[in-house]
């Protein structure tokens, strides 16, 4: 069953930042410098850390601050150790009224 | 073609994984001295001291099978013949190789007389950690020798279990050599705040006991009662098996920027044992950090397969003490503390280190991951400290 979960209003999320959308599973929503939105699983696949709440976004690369694993937010792919497992990715929909949803 | 990896811990296992990830199809043999399935080291002085359990595996059984390596545990390399390309082992076997990766890490230093006394431990292996945990559970009187990361983590684990802890540290303030006296003083307040008694500026004159340890004599004449002594006074590269091999060994195996052992084109080194000119440093150094071992593994795999080397990352290390997380990025000792925010009695504490030109070379951050990541960027870009935007440290995040 697909769920369309409200994330934020698009102007609430600054380019180059991220947020966590609570739920099961929690989802990280990222906005790159170009203003595009991407969504992945919120929890780092290495141990346990919320990437939406606390991480470092550099272009399309997110770094986990616990042990510095990096992922591509477009594909979820791990880019370096200690991550070897990809993050699940989710579709993002920006509605006409500017509201941002993730499809989980 | 066979790639032989000696040392089956962080650097060794990650090298095998990285080789497979970049499509290396040759046979890989991994030999490791320890009997446990490859496990992770940082938990040894953290979770593993808190409760009984199992070592934290470096990879799952399925992943190990998928790796398609010949893993020989309980086998210690005893010598290397680099000309004939053979490693000999404690089991009397000879392992031929086309390429050799040295990943034997380090061996902890101990105190004279320690091997004859029960109750004196270092913490490097799971068996070490299990022995310390069992003694802690038996409610011992603990003396920790050495106020570095491992010593501090052991003290913290013992305090969490309500045991009395004395910590002996030769410097006037633990960690001064890494962070300078001002920042070291702030950080070592964590000990006092949590009831660890620090005896600083004093050394160990000897261990007392007959069979089992009963006390520690200090160089100032005092004596501390102890039935558990944990020694965390550093470690030496595990290169004894390379004696006579002709490899360049001088506080580690000397490597070039790509981790090729100098003068030996088919031999590589990775992790704590490798001394190399790291991208964010000046002269060849040995780095005993977990992320460094991970990064080395990826770099060695790229060097072996001729792939593009991974982008260098600033040095990083963390330590968990008394329920707080200390994170260090860059090389604080390459500069001076230039900006301090917060304190250990507040939600967070941040110390930024600058070189003589005022550029960021390192940071120590307590419980503020977001600021840490900002500092990491500043280290990579050598941003002037005065241009760094630092808010009031955020509240402790779970
Ligand atoms: C208790 C503890 C806590 C730590 N906590 C942190 C932390 O919080 N953060 C951090 O960044 N870093 C931490 N570290 C450091 C980090 O774990 C190391 O940097 C990392 O393990 C290095 O990996 P390595 O594979 O190079 O060496 P090691 O992990 O030491 O592995 C080397 C392996 O080689 C084997 N070996 C040695 N000689 C031979 C031989 N002759 N033949 C066959 N096998 C051999 C050894 O048995 C060992 O298994 C900690 C280390 C310890 C010990
Ligand atoms: S939890 Fe993210 S890198 Fe370890």
Describe the protein.
Chain B: InterPro entries: FAD-oxidoreductase/Apoptosis, FAD/NAD-bd_sf, FAD/NAD-binding_dom, FAD/NAD-linked_Rdtase_dimer_sf, Reductase_C. Chain B: Keywords: FAD, Flavoprotein, Oxidoreductase. Chain B: Its cofactor is FAD. Chain B: Residues 3-297 form the FAD/NAD(P)-binding domain. Chain B: Residues 316-390 form the Reductase C-terminal domain. Chain A: Residues 1-25 are annotated as: Disordered. With 104 residues, chain A is an all-beta fold. Chain A has one domain (4-103): Rieske [2Fe-2S] iron-sulphur domain (Rieske Iron-sulfur Protein, 3-layer Sandwich). Chain A has no helices and nine strands. Chain A has strands at residues 4-9, 17-21, 27-31, 37-41, 56-58, 61-63, 70-72, 89-94, 99-103. Chain A has a six-stranded antiparallel beta sheet, with no helix packed on it. With 398 residues, chain B is an alpha/beta fold. Chain B has eight helices and 26 strands. Chain B has helices at residues 10-21, 47-50, 61-67, 126-137, 149-160, 176-193, 290-305, 369-381, and strands at residues 2-6, 27-32, 70-73, 77-81, 86-89, 94-96, 99-102, 106-108, 120-121, 142-145, 165-169, 197-200, 204-210, 212-218, 223-225, 228-231, 235-237, 253-254, 267-269, 274-276, 285-286, 316-321, 324-330, 336-342, 349-354, 360-366. In chain B, strands 3-2-1-7-19 form a five-stranded parallel beta sheet, with helices on one face. In chain B, strands 9-16-10-11-12 form a five-stranded parallel beta sheet, covered by helices on one side. In chain B, strands 22-23-26-25-24 form a five-stranded antiparallel beta sheet. Chain B folds into three domains: 2-107 and 235-305, 3-Layer(bba) Sandwich (FAD/NAD(P)-binding domain), CATH 3.50.50.60; 110-231, FAD/NAD(P)-binding domain (3-Layer(bba) Sandwich), CATH 3.50.50; 323-396, FAD/NAD-linked reductase, C-terminal dimerisation domain (Enolase-like, domain 1, 2-Layer Sandwich), CATH 3.30.390.30. In chain B, helix 1 runs parallel beside helix 7 (290-305). Mean pLDDT of chain B is 96; it is low at 393-398. Classes of the chains: A mainly beta (104), B alpha/beta (398). At the A-B interface, loops of A face helix 1, helix 7 and helix 8 of B. The structure holds flavin-adenine dinucleotide and FE2/S2 (inorganic) cluster. The site of FE2/S2 (inorganic) cluster (FES) has 9 residues of chain A, from loops. Residues 44, 46-47, 49, 64, 66-67, 69, 82 of chain A line the site of FE2/S2 (inorganic) cluster.
